[in-house]
Known about the structure:
By secondary structure, the protein is an alpha/beta fold. Helices cover 29% and strands 26% of the residues. The longest helix is centred in the middle third of the chain and has 13 residues, at 107-119. The chain starts with a strand and ends in a 12-residue tail after the last strand.
Amino acid sequence: MTTKVAVVGATGKMGTLACRLVEETDGFELVARLGSGGDLAELLGADVVIDFTVPQVSPGIVEYAVEHGKSVLVGTSGWSAERIISLERTVADAPEVGVIIVPNFSLGSVLATFFSAMAARFYESIEIIEAHHAGKIDSPSGTAVRTAELIGEARRALGPVIAPHADQRARGQQVSSVPIHSLRMQGVVAKQQVILGGLGEQLSITHDTLSPAAYEAGILLALRALGDTRGVVVGLDRLIDLSGAA
């Protein structure tokens, strides 16, 4: 059986990559390529939708697809916890539909976030520095937000991290009490460093994305999982077995 796929945001770097992967992969057929402002009616001929647009339009695209019975793979940043809660309510009315939201399709990035959450219980000072290319319009990145949220969950019984002088703008934006510092500059694809400080030591967990090829396996993994997904799933970590790492 062939799954028909529509890609929204098909002219961007990630959308172009997704289109190529769909065309090269057995079992999938690319039936629609849309820009961020394209006619969403073109999605109706697809079985599933991939969204690689921008934060301002992504929720409308996902809502349209869900309302028309299409499962969606979301690679767009900007899906905060509040947005996801709202989406869960929408998807609850469409029990045959699934939405997978992936802040980062790189396996190494997923592992770095997972390791950071594991370590968070042992350190009181934790901050995140993330860097992306100059054209990335949102900050902090979805990956950094996801990392901070998982750190917050891991520390739920311990309380917030120590973040002195957090009222000063130069101290970054706090997510789940974790300060995040964002760099947007030329010469960078993507990088995230989680710094955990303790008495007399620091632990640094760093992931570097060197080329978009790092995202290919994760995109295909999530796309293959989409057909069996119901409800809202957040994070590539939900689709792979990390029990051994724990």
